[in-house]
Amino acid sequence: MRDFPLFPEQASTFAGQVDLLYWVLIGLSLIFGGVLPFIILYLMVRYHRSNQRVDRTNQVHSNLPLELTWSIIPLFLVMGVFFWGAFLFVQMRTPPARALEVYVIGKQWMWHAQHPNGKRENNELHVPIGRQVKLIMTSQDVIHSFYIPAFRVKQDVLPGRYTTMWFEATREGEYHLFCAEYCGTEHARMGGRVVVMSAAAYEQWLVTPGEVILPDGSAGSALPVPQPGQDQGDPMALVGGQLFANLGCASCHRDDGAGAGPSLVNLYGNQERLVDGSSVLVDENYLAESILNPQARVVDGYQPIMPSYDGQLSADQVNQLIAYIKSLSDAGAQAATPEPSPQASGPTAEGTAAPAATAAPTATTAPTASSTPAAALATATAAPAASGGFDAALAAQGDQVFANLGCASCHNSGVGPALQGLYNSERPLADGSTITADEAYLIESILNSQARVAEGYQPIMPPYQGQISDDQLAQLVEYIKSLGN
Ligand code: HEC
Ligand code: HEC
Ligand SMILES: [Cu+2]
After folding, report:
1. In total, how many domains does the chain have?
2. I need a labelling partner for 405 at 20 to 30 A (CA). Which of 156, 324, 395, 476 fits?
3. Does position 113 have pLDDT exceeding 60, yes or no?
4. What is the pLDDT of residues 391-425, one digit of tens each?
5. Residue 227 domain flag
6. Residue 368 forms part of a structural domain
């Protein structure tokens, strides 16, 4: 039997349980599907009309005890199998709270994994033995399916959605990793291996540099570049924290809640109230949706002004932002924290207990000096309203829109350029050219800001195409013109 592997090895806590249930099912099927037909066949022949030798007196027409027996025993058998299977299923579907979290991205045609300390790998998954591991998985393109036969776990990986899977490996070694989504031949090659290591070897592996292909196709290092003075905490969350500051999220989402958007501290793992009165549990799916399609579910007490970042961020970046937001909450920080290990060295060694504390300050690196941007602007625009070249009434409305939509959060904080004096000026662009900042340029800058990027700035402004009405656009343009004379 050992040379003929009917079953894959058993290398997780689930494997034995799944196999036992499987054998019981096979046993029951053999009894009912294998033995009963032969009995029926035998009786058919023995009592056939042509066989005159059997005794046909004393025919039995009904026998209640017998009928009850053959109804009740199978009932218990099938209900037993049902509850047993359901119990196992629920267990496999409920990741424990303190699991080690690894982010997995499926893409045509590879698996990309990122560990909490930021270590990345392709088509391989290194996990410590005897430790609960939770995979947080999403796809960048089509449906894939993450399958580790030796662990008896398989889960579909879907674009635009997060699915999770968990296991605890029980035997060191290397096991097959497959994509079990067989629509198209290439999925079959998305294989790789799962390496189960001792805790010490895993810690060592985590801090060993290497090279990987990032999900966007570029070459990258397996380890994130260490941040000066910030070598503790949870680097994946740390990278996300920097992204959060650089993308200007922090200018709307301030920790003190004074920004245009809600504070994200202690958001993950809790119930969030929405404007329609319902509430939602904040998990990875909700966070991703809030970033990619913010208008789908709007937080109670806020306006639906957050621009969509769909198409602006890679799946990898969304994962990093999610890891960062999770690190801001007790529930998320705890889950992402690796258990302290004496062998640990490098980034995971110290201070892992408080990633929130180290990551949070990055959110405030974006200058947020003007605490009341709207008020600041109101005074700035009061004077030029009298001069010509723009419609004063529209401009005043635009002033409001500018504040309400959160434009001011970026443009009055230094994340985006100040717009005073912009109109009709010669605008230097990031590509070295210049352009006259006429109405067309203003409109393009709002609807599709990345088309022409202002010199000295990153192309982080999300496009407002389709997010604002023509009226609002006209008001904003008039307002910016009013700043420019
Ligand atoms: C222009 C201001 C603005 C910017 C920039 C912005 N947001 Fe938001 N965000 C909001 C507002 C307002 C809400 C609440 C309304 C809603 O749910 O859409 C919100 C909601 C959210 C939520 C849900 C919060 C909750 O309490 O449930 C998350 C998560 C979020 N944003 C993340 C981000 C990330 C990540 C970025 C940067 C990539 C970002 N936001 C950029 C304004 C902004
Ligand atoms: C998340 C931060 C952010 C938000 C929110 C934001 N912007 Fe911007 N904006 C920028 C950045 C950064 C630039 C410069 C890079 C570029 O040109 O894309 C910019 C550029 C511009 C420009 C061109 C400026 C120049 O000097 O050439 C205009 C006009 C503008 N934004 C208007 C708006 C308006 C109107 C809104 C609200 C509807 C808005 N922005 C919301 C960050 C933001
Ligand atoms: Cu696949």
Report:
1. 4
2. 324
3. yes
4. 888 888 899 889 888 888 888 878 889 898 898 88
5. no
6. no
Q: For residues 210 and 149, state if they share a domain.
A: yes
Q: Helix 284-292 vs helix 315-327: angle between axes, to the nearest 10 degrees?
A: 120
How far, in Å, are 16, 63, 225, 441 from residue 60 at the CA level?
Answer: 46, 7, 84, 95
Q: Could you list the residue range(s) of the whole structural domain that residue 156 is in?
A: 100-221
**SS3 call for 120:** strand
- Angle subtended at Cα 82 by Cα 81 and Cα 88, rounded to the nearest 5 degrees: 90
What letter represents residue 294's amino acid?
A: P
Domain boundary among 332, 363, 394: 363
For residue 478, give the CATH number of its domain.
Answer: 1.10.760.10
Ligand 2 near 136 CB (within 6 A): no
**C-alpha of residue 146 to centroid of ligand 1, in Å:** 31
pTM beyond cutoff 0.85: no
Q: What is the CA(326)–ligand 2 centre distance, in A?
A: 28
Mutate to test the pocket of ligand 1, among 247, 284, 290, 402 (most ligand atoms within 8 A of CB): 290
- For residue 296, give the ligand nearest its CA: 1
Residues lining ion ligand 3 (Cβ < 5 A) are 144, 179, 181, 187, 190
The answer to whether position 434 is within a domain reads yes
CATH number for the domain that contains residue 217: 2.60.40.420
Sign of CA dihedral 284, 329, 196, 349: positive
Q: Is 417 in the pocket of ligand 2 (CB under 6 A)?
A: yes
Other C-beta atoms closer than 10 Å to the C-beta of 403 total 21
Ligand 3 mean position, distance from CA 57 (Å): 67
Whether 250 and 261 have beta carbons less than 8 Å apart is answered as no
State whether 23 and 75 are in the same domain: yes
Q: Is 148 in the pocket of ligand 1 (CB under 6 A)?
A: no
CA 221 to chain centre: 22
pLDDT given at position 388:
53
Instruction: Tell me the per-residue pLDDT of 203-237, one tens digit each, with 9 for 90 and over.
Output: 999 888 877 887 777 777 777 655 555 445 567 88
295 CA → ligand 1 middle, Å = 10
Is any ligand 2 atom within 6 A of the Cβ of residue 464? yes
